[in-house]
Amino acid sequence: MSKENIQYIAKKIVENGKGILAADESTNTIKKRFNSINVKSNEETRCFYRDTLFSTPDISKYISGVILFEETFFQKNSSNESLKEKLENINCYPGIKVDQGLEEFNKDSIETYTKGIETLDKRLKPFAENGAKFTKWRSVINIGENIPSSHCIEENSSLLAEYALISQNNKLVPIVEPEVIMNGEHNIDKCYEVTKETLNQVFNSLKEKNVDLKGMLLKPNMIVPGDKSGEKLNIKEIAEKTLACLTKTVPEEVPGIVFLSGGLSSINATMILNEINKLNSTSWNLSFSYGRALQEDALKMWAGKSENKNVAQDIFLHRAKMNSLACHGKWDTSLENE
Ligand code: 13P
Question: pTM value?
């Protein structure tokens, strides 16, 4: 695949109001999600649940790509069907999470960097050879007393850039995810300031390493107040500040921006995306790459029971459709009762 192909795929992922399903929860994270519905997490339950999502009729009208965890990428369901091939068959691009989670810089540090860069090139080969079209790498920046430090922002930006380059060298579109975490007492302006500094640093590093900006997607947080700030979410203010922050930091060549939901409720994540797109006058397609905000309602409805499969799929399809409408700025609260 040539460079043009990477650019083509990056563009395709965010076209026509489509977005990404992030179904790449690590084994630990999916265990937490399953605990919340009293379901035991094992290979079989994880496979059943993810297979349920991916086999949702009509889902590819709204979802262009799915980020998979390693286990899922090579997993087959009880009818011996490959989950990854199921996605390919409905024209959904399979992607793969390639970071190896977070680690503190040293034993006294509360800040983290993302692991896995040394082995990345080698680890990408089997995915590239087996049809993966894109990858994801998540960095985490926390806001708190005296943090984030510039060291944390610089190190994580540099790792993101190195990851993006290795991914592109393997003909895979990198999804660059610097997540400024919404947990904390900080206000919305602090989130704006830290996200702006982070994105500036990320793009400096990407440019330094000559990453092809047309062949990548950015996955940022929205600009929101900390969850313990006591501030009420003001949807219009969030949308305006998010757009202002992106306009100041993200080069025009980047074809699309796919937001993470970061702990926002399903409805808030849709509502904010819709407001952002109503105000958007940039050249970027502004879409979603949600994990929790796409899955939460369906997960609860499924509750580990195979007889709930169809209704869980209906709920998942509905959320995907609502977010797709939000990509066009055409969502409305009345549509939630459809
Ligand atoms: P959330 O939408 O639940 O934040 O997940 C997105 C994601 O992929 C985090 O890496």
Answer: 0.98
